[in-house]
Structures are given as structure tokens and as C-alpha cells.
Specification:
Blueprint: H1 2-41, H2 48-107
Helix pairs in contact: 1-2
Length: 109
């Protein structure tokens, strides 16, 4: 188990940072959405500053959704790859231990 941790800790640390960024964008999404809703609740056709502010919130919301989509798929792709590598490594380790045990029980008195 220590060998697996030594081998994959850096990669999982990087994936943890990606997950942190993904969750951060998921936290910011409702804030942007709330600001857009408050713009429409307090709509004033003569207030162009509020309109530009609403445009900024819409751009932020769109950017967060795009970043979330990219990070989410990137994260799951790499987690699946590491999971397959770990499965192969653990199965190989179990196979080697079983084969060594069988070899010693057959050929040693």
C-alpha cells in the first residue's frame, strides 16, 4: 500500500486541486445567478450601469459553467485512468504473491 501511495500521491494531489477548483466554480454559480435575478427584480430601463453589471454577471456565469464542464470531464477522465492503473497494479501484486506462495509450497519440503 505504501508503494501505491508513493507512486500516485502527486497525481492525486493535482487531481485534488482540480476538484477544489471545480467545487469552487459550483459555489460561485448560485451567487452569479442570484445577482442576475436581482437585476430583473429591480429592473430599471434607464439604468445602463445596472445593465452592464448584469452583462458582467452573465459573462461570469457563462465562464464558470464552461470552466466547470472542462474541469469535470478532465477530472473524471484522469481518475478513470488512474483507477485502471491501480487495478492492474494490485491484481499483478496479488498474482505475484499467490504464484510465489504456490511455488514455495510445491517445491519446498
Amino acid at each position: 500500500m505504501r508503494a501505491i501511495v508513493k507512486c500516485y500521491w502527486k497525481f492525486y494531489f493535482i487531481l485534488g486541486l482540480l476538484t477544489f477548483l471545480e467545487e469552487g466554480t459550483k459555489v460561485v454559480l448560485p451567487i452569479f445567478l442570484g445577482k442576475i435575478i436581482s437585476y430583473f427584480e429591480n429592473y430599471d430601463p434607464d439604468n445602463s450601469a445596472a445593465l452592464h453589471e448584469a452583462y458582467a454577471y452573465v459573462a461570469g456565469l457563462s465562464a464558470c459553467v464552461l470552466v466547470w464542464a472542462v474541469l469535470h470531464h478532465l477530472y473524471f477522465y484522469h481518475i478513470q485512468r488512474v483507477g485502471m492503473r491501480l487495478r492492474v497494479a494490485v491484481c499483478h501484486m496479488i498474482y505475484r504473491k499467490v504464484s510465489v506462495t504456490r511455488y514455495h509450497s510445491v517445491y519446498l519440503p
